[in-house]
């Protein structure tokens, strides 16, 4: 395929995106006229045109006229104007998501035999070309491990019902690409879209209450039902197809390397609503979902497997399994398949009954139900082997193998649930427990070394430290109940239902050992009489702040030096999971220092743990926003130092990331395909013996940049006494808490301290006010400390950008943040801050740093404009800004009026509603919340 053809296809594809945006925009225009008359459409169009003109060329007079136009809207029509711009962004986002699917399809259509970059086939092809043998690849596959963990972090500002409407609109828009549609069919598509946009207009996008934890569980399960149960096996199938193509001499069955987990219903850090009962109910709901999926698939298979013994001879194993089922299971009359010549359908009827009976506790342990996912897989293998027996192997490959893969991936629990709690909760419980047993009067007052020695002793002793005859405080009792729930869950739902217990704010080895001692109380950790250590729940430290990251290597060394701890890790296949917090480290030290210290910590922790013959699985707590480590999934994998991924990778998938990546099957497939390709590439790079390009001198340079950046960041954020007040007044932080987007409070404690504010609302509020400060602030000062207007130093930075994956990833993140930020609009938000001197000083610092950072990014990248190297995103931001801007100005106006009213002990629910609508609209427009 020639470059000219590629360019032509790309232009044609972009024209289709513009067609879809224009088409949906016109439909929205019709809805505005239908719902609000020509007056509403005229006002929206005037504001849009004025905003575009202002973006095309800034003029103070235009700027003032535009602000007056927005602020002068009647309250009756202002509400509708806000919704018009917000819904426009929803439609544009749908068009862009569809376009991603279209681009992949167009590439495959026009490329012929050419392999698409970033695809699974491209990575397998590179393995073959790189000289990797089939045995090498097989060994490599056993090392691959990627777990994507859904969280309920409150950054998804869109209601579930709205996402359902979006999905229907997306499906209708995709139909427009079908050249076989008749004129009447196209008109029908247009009518359907008109109906959906009217429904969208008349559906409340705001929640009337905060979701409960179980509401959040249902939201998370939506993605498994709609997408992941179907797409994930397809990704595995594609990898197997590519391996067969390039390594035909080997018979392939891919080990489970890519799976999903969840925190929803297990993450109790700062969320008192997540109780042991809620965790149990979460596991029950997840099991019901898996069983429903299997019931549906088995019923579908009954329609496909109509093979008759009049024509084919099925296997004796299949017939024997049917007879065994008949001997133990009595089907209802309507469940029996009466045609004796169709044995597969007979067998499937029994299998459906056994799946249904999984929920019947009275049948536990009997042949009437599946007592484990492995038993279901065994029956599917009987069918698979029988189909191949009479040469129906294509049917076996298409249908049975896919279901086998589904059961391997999702079991009877759908997703492994992680439990997380703050370290302070464990210490408080341990203090009470040990005091009641007269072991130590005040455990919390012990030194760190005294705690470690005591906990090690307790782990080695067989006696319990709790008693059912003692009464504990509610918090301690709940803490103990969580461990009992985990033990029962592993018994009822399988060992894989819960395997990790994450410890927030882990600051010492004792924080990890406390969880092990509490696990020992219920048998999750125990030492048998012969000395064998059994451990089915791993204590996972979460290192979040810059100080914690510094301390992490020494903490892990102290733990590994304890024989009982090392034995517990050996029981977990010599694998230690460690979580790193991108959000809190960024909030604590700024984007440059957080990224650098995370890298340093990973390298040092890996080095320490490997000394003890243990592999590390790093769990990366990334958010969706740039200020919380957000980036495309494949990039987040390739950004890791290659030698740190030998034990596998876990990554959180949070908030709006879930809907943007996993609402549509085409998008989900491409994202998971790219992740698989990146994982294979990274592991192959490490196994090839290649070293990451990172010179010793670069480490010194970045360490210096990081330190200067840290000082600059903390001077403002922590050491300026007026800063926190400026932040609260010049962003919608107080109002974000009224958006009802999550069950968890925005603060860990009922406190006004900055340290107790969670990273999510911190980033969310800065994003809304267009600063995006956490994603770039202090980077410029750090870079300037090395550059110092010296061209030789600039050449070093440019070389680092070209050759260092870490530095390039950091600069790319800064580029995106600078491109999305808008200090002209941010200044309007700053105007809401009361103290004029503090406002001018703080905003002046922010503005100067933004200018410096922007200039240095352009120098390092050699670009004339930010994002010149990513024109698709550059153009998307350019086209979106004129539509986001009116919402921002309206938000400032509304916040000012609402706060003034509340200062006088008044309130206005309708005005608050309009504020919240602008928050939703800006979130959709910027495609990031928190």
Describe the model.
The chain is mainly alpha-helical and 930 residues long. The strands form two sheets. The protein has a nine-stranded parallel β-sheet. Strands 6-7 form a two-stranded antiparallel ribbon. A hairpin with a 5-residue loop joins strand 6 (525-527) and strand 7 (533-535). The two termini are 41 Å apart.
Brief synopsis:
It contains 35 helices and eleven strands. Helix 22 (633-638) links the parallel strand 10 (615-621) and strand 11 (649-653). Mean pLDDT is 91; it is low at 1-8.
Features:
11 strands, 930 residues, two-stranded antiparallel sheet, globular, 64% helix, 35 helices, disordered N terminus
Secondary structure blueprint with pairings:
Elements: H1 3-56, H2 60-71, H3 75-111, H4 120-129, H5 134-143, E1 146-150, H6 160-175, H7 183-201, H8 213-246, E2 258-262, H9 276-304, H10 316-328, H11 343-356, H12 373-389, H13 393-410, E3 416-417, E4 419-422, H14 423-436, H15 448-460, H16 474-493, E5 500-504, H17 509-520, E6 525-527, E7 533-535, E8 538-543, H18 546-560, H19 563-571, E9 575-581, H20 582-589, H21 591-610, E10 615-621, H22 633-638, E11 649-653, H23 656-662, H24 665-687, H25 696-717, H26 723-729, H27 733-736, H28 759-768, H29 779-787, H30 791-803, H31 805-820, H32 823-830, H33 836-861, H34 871-903, H35 909-926
Parallel strand pairs: 1-2, 1-11, 2-3, 4-5, 5-8, 8-9, 9-10, 10-11
Antiparallel strand pairs: 6-7
Helix pairs in contact: 1-2, 1-3, 1-7, 1-34, 3-6, 3-34, 3-35, 4-8, 4-24, 6-7, 8-9, 8-13, 8-24, 9-11, 9-13, 9-16, 10-11, 10-12, 12-13, 14-16, 14-17, 15-17, 18-21, 20-21, 20-28, 21-25, 25-29, 29-33, 30-31, 31-33, 34-35
